[in-house]
């Protein structure tokens, strides 16, 4: 009986472990092996792949364009993740102070935005920034800014392209972050806040010394996940590029891998790039796990 109690948890976890290993583990291992081979279009038609060791990695790391895309991706990720977390925290605090009906309305709006299919949302955003029929240009021109008549946000420059892309990503990511942080805020005891207020603590001091220590694990988790998601963003950038963006000047890591692997049929090099992205992601995740294990020792 005692043995069965020890075995039962592992039996319950077994299906999930098998599922993850089958649908995530195998492609990951295959990608890693492929990164050490010269695998191109010919191999798609049955030609044997040639083992070249770290040749693909040397090609990638020796390509200045890769470092340009990496730096651009890290800067874009820091921008989008930072604004997502800042706005989500502000909205979560607003929801905490709002009346029940307003809180319900905000929660409903967040769920609708979060559940909206990305391609459908991107269709709307493309219409909003359309050079000739877009609402954004119409409003700006109506305010007297005639230079925005027929202005192409996606093709004018990489800066305007990434500005639109960041707004789309922040808009789609913020609801989940705000809902999660608000859930953490519900765990803050009102008695602690009232005691701090009686002691003369201002709102910002209560936020820093009472609220922040309680919600910081959730904020850190959502922040790390947001960085990982934004570092690997693909759909939004790819779709907007098809609408007029200059690919070489707007590529991020996700679209760069797609361009090298699918468009250029350099699957070995694309696997090496994907592995580098994976290592960066693992480094970020490892930092968060280390933070969780050492938090209790601070």
From TrEMBL:
<dbReference type="GO" id="GO:0005886">
    <property type="term" value="C:plasma membrane"/>
</dbReference>
<keyword id="KW-0812">Transmembrane</keyword>
<keyword id="KW-0472">Membrane</keyword>
<dbReference type="GO" id="GO:0055085">
    <property type="term" value="P:transmembrane transport"/>
</dbReference>
<feature type="transmembrane region" description="Helical">
    <location>
        <begin position="210"/>
        <end position="229"/>
    </location>
</feature>
<feature type="domain" description="ABC transmembrane type-1">
    <location>
        <begin position="70"/>
        <end position="288"/>
    </location>
</feature>
<feature type="transmembrane region" description="Helical">
    <location>
        <begin position="106"/>
        <end position="128"/>
    </location>
</feature>
<dbReference type="Pfam" id="PF00528">
    <property type="entry name" value="BPD_transp_1"/>
</dbReference>
<feature type="transmembrane region" description="Helical">
    <location>
        <begin position="161"/>
        <end position="185"/>
    </location>
</feature>
<keyword id="KW-1133">Transmembrane helix</keyword>
<keyword id="KW-0813">Transport</keyword>
<feature type="transmembrane region" description="Helical">
    <location>
        <begin position="267"/>
        <end position="289"/>
    </location>
</feature>
<comment type="similarity">
    <text>Belongs to the binding-protein-dependent transport system permease family.</text>
</comment>
<feature type="transmembrane region" description="Helical">
    <location>
        <begin position="7"/>
        <end position="29"/>
    </location>
</feature>
<feature type="transmembrane region" description="Helical">
    <location>
        <begin position="73"/>
        <end position="94"/>
    </location>
</feature>
<dbReference type="InterPro" id="IPR035906">
    <property type="entry name" value="MetI-like_sf"/>
</dbReference>
<protein>
    <submittedName>
        <fullName>Sugar ABC transporter permease</fullName>
    </submittedName>
</protein>
<dbReference type="InterPro" id="IPR000515">
    <property type="entry name" value="MetI-like"/>
</dbReference>
<dbReference type="InterPro" id="IPR050809">
    <property type="entry name" value="UgpAE/MalFG_permease"/>
</dbReference>
<keyword id="KW-1003">Cell membrane</keyword>
């Amino acid at each position: 009986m005692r043995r069965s109690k020890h075995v039962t948890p592992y039996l319950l976890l077994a299906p999930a472990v098998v599922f993850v290993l089958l649908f995530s583990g195998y492609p990951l291992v295959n990608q890693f092996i492929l990164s050490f081979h010269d695998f191109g279009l010919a191999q798609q038609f049955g030609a044997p792949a040639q083992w070249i060791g770290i040749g693909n990695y040397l090609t990638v790391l020796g390509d200045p364009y890769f470092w340009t895309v990496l730096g651009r991706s890290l800067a874009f990720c820091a921008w989008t993740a930072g604004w997502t977390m800042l706005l989500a925290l502000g909205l979560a605090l607003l929801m905490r102070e709002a009346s029940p009906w307003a809180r319900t309305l905000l929660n409903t709006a967040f769920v609708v935005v979060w559940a909206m299919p990305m391609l459908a949302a991107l269709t709307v955003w493309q219409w909003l920034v359309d050079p000739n029929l877009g609402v954004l240009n119409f409003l700006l021109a109506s305010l007297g800014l005639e230079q925005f008549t027929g202005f192409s946000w996606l093709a004018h420059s990489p800066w305007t392209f990434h500005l639109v892309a960041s707004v789309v990503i922040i808009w789609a990511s913020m609801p989940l972050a705000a809902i999660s942080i608000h859930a953490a805020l519900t765990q803050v005891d009102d008695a602690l806040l009232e005691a701090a207020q009686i002691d003369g603590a201002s709102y910002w001091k209560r936020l820093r010394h009472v609220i922040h220590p309680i919600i910081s694990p959730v904020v850190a988790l959502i922040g790390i996940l947001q960085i990982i998601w934004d570092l690997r963003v693909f759909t939004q950038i790819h779709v907007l590029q098809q609408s007029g963006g200059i690919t070489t000047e707007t590529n991020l890591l996700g679209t760069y891998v797609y361009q090298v692997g699918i468009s250029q049929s350099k699957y070995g090099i694309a696997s090496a790039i994907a592995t580098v992205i994976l290592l960066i992601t693992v480094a970020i995740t490892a930092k968060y796990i280390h933070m969780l294990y050492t938090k209790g020792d601070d």
